[in-house]
Amino acid sequence: MPIITEKDLQPIYDVIVVGSGAGGGQSAYTLTMNGVKVLMLEAGRNYDPVTETPMFQSKADAPLRAMSTKEKPFGFHDATVDGGWEVPGEPYTQASTDPKQRFDWWRARMLGGRTNHWGRISLRNGPYDFKPYSRDGLGFDWPISYEDVAPYYDKVEMLVGVYGSNEGLENTPDSPNGTLLPAPKARAGELYVKKHIAKFGMPVIPIHRAVLSTRQDHVNFPARLHPNNPKAQKIIAKAMQERAACFWATDCGRGCAIKANYQSTTVHLPPALATGNLDILCNAHAREVTVGADGKANGVIYIDKVAGQERAVKARAVILAASSGETARILLNSKSHRFPNGLANGSGLVGKYIMDTVGAGLGGSVPAFENLPVHNEEGAGTHVYIPWWLYKDASKLGFARGYHIEFGTGRRMPGLGAGGASPGYGKSYKEEVRQKYGAGIGFAGRGEMIPNKDSFCELDPTVKDKWGIPVLRFNWKWSDHELKQAAHMEATFAMVIEAIGGKAKKPEADGSKAIEAGGRIIHEVGGALMGADAKKSVTNRWNQCWDVPNLVLNDGSAFCSNADKNPTLTIMALAWRASDHLVEEMRKGNL
Amino acid sequence: MENIPADNSGQIDRRQALKWIGAAAAAAAIFPHASAQDKLPRPTGAAPGGQRIGTDPVLNKNYTPGDLWPLTLTPKQRKAAASLTDLILPPDNPGDKMPSQLGVQEFIDEWISSPYDETNKDRPIITAGLDWLDAEAQRRFQKDFADLAEPQKCAIADDICGKTAVKKAFKGQQNFFSRFRYLAASGYYTTPQGWKDIGYVGNVPTVNFDGPTPEALKHLGLA
């Protein structure tokens, strides 16, 4: 069973998985390894990183030196194709014209979705992050705890390959020994920052990223991942051996032809296909989930984008992992006599409480970094970060929750603007360019947003996409917690840049100006919160919709909170957990 | 997707965008005081157009200026652009090529010819600026800019490069020079020779990531 065309579709599958990114990829992997027959629907085209990734191209090899364009917003060589802030023919709308209330929605219409280009930052939520309401009375507690998810974090880290270290810090969980791959060394500028900000109590520690710093343990990991499943062990052992270790060159955001980083297309889908249990249909845009007379999900109606026709396919269960926005859209568009307000929406909460990450940044230049003896500082993107360090000061900050700091230094591949702002020309100008190259530093805060009732998506009453499907309309509002947090980030970055003797651009004291617009950090979660009470949530603790138990939401839509930890690792851990549960329920005949 | 500010050279930051807006406004009045104004030819190149990059281009092939959209500069303008590029970024080492031999002026031509708003704001600035260079060279030395001796080129460049205070009469040209230098440096330092020149030694596969050298640590007081 491979990547197929419409004519090869089976009459019925065990499970249809909508979406092929982190949630869909993990779901398909877990199900097919357990013998479940799966059809994956992907709205975009087939995409193969092994043959398509621009591994060593210089920016001079790209049009306009790889400049960011509307069609390729992260630059020409970014892995995303047919995606971005705007997708032709597939609009979304804003409820308000106020720029501070807009939500920008990044979509990637391609096999593997957003996993192809993401930052690979793979941080576990900590124990606090599952019970935020209990700690400060804001937002919602999850119906599950860190202990429920920890075994799945372990498994995902082993499966995808995550480098990092165990530091024993508050709400920053360690992984079991032997799970993480070795952390790459810190760069010179990173060590310099570490030394000079220790006095603020700010730790600089290895970040966790889904990149193979060494090859995976293909001898021991398979049995830990799939106990009592020799076939799965054999398949994953082989797949692990087909991945090379990172060779510390070329930007991970381009994708990775040697499979050294995680993207669904190189890590989840090949072993899932190798089971013989997976069909993948690309260019198939899911429109709605169909429901049988028994009230259970029994298939999906999709648009065959090549033929421009609507088609239907059947299954015994359906998993939506289309991105939390698209999943809400599919549910809201799945209207029937029995479900007039959309499917699984008895609570009225589908589309409600959507979240992104609080983001703000500040750059500067550091004279100490000038004329640094030349050496290769490329590495593998982000090596270190600053986890939230002010848990003890929560009551003094004026805002709830916290943020981590990512920062970039070093002599990286020159691009547009490489000449800097030096005046003059000729030999003296070039001398100054050399002196300043690599002396820049950039800080980015990534913080927790608390879900609020003013941030939600709904169907636009009039606007439809090019296939006539109603589109999403976004409503967005930051609370004071997020705005104050963004201002705090700016002040912190200015303090840090000063501490390393650098010159900062002016920090923005007004949080509403400092904060990135909603959606810009591309950590879109929420919209179908899980909970313990069917009236107050969309899914149960196993990501199953309360109203339709054989409909499971395995992207970020079931998130009850959005900790400062980037969501992808948690999406994968929950998708594995929910898929295990689905297999069990199917075996028991409960669905 | 995380986007670390120091590594975002594919992006155009807000400051840069603002600069361009300023540059476009200035271009409209690029010759307010120049004595050679009346003799100058106006840019005649075709309006920007042609194929855009698209949402699904082939990523792992190498593109050459002119592949996607037609170029703008006249042979005379291209000659002036090549000459100014070489003046701004002269080779330091005997074996190095001139930036014009690396096609830097062709990148500039690609840039100003593109169908993107972000780049073709530079089009009137660059084309008018190159025309002014030749006109000014004719006025002062009775030759085109590319045919001048280096001290003569420097005499013109010194007036507009911004290293020392720029006379009011040359303010428009200062803006041209600054944009041209931005593009020339962007074009040059993104080539393999430019990498070597600036001290970038990455984009090569290695078995291990060794981290900073002892010399680098010493430089930062970390040894």
What does this entry show, briefly?
The complex is a heterodimer of chains A (591) and B (223). Chain A is of the alpha/beta class.
How confident overall, as mean pLDDT of chain B?
A: 83
> Would you count the extended β strands of chain B for me?
0
Instruction: State the secondary-structure class of chain A.
Output: alpha/beta
Q: Count of helical segments of chain B?
A: 9
Instruction: Return residue spans of chain A where pLDDT drops below 50 for at least 5 consecutive residues.
Output: none
Sequence stretches where pLDDT stays below 50 over 5 or more residues of chain B: 1-47
Main sheet: strands, sense, barrel of chain A: 8 strands, mixed
Class from secondary-structure proportions of chain B? mainly alpha
SS strand fraction of chain A: 15-25%
User: Given the C-alpha coordinates, what overall shape of chain B results?
Assistant: globular
Q: What do the pLDDT scores of chain A average to? A: 97
Distance between the termini of chain B: 34 Å
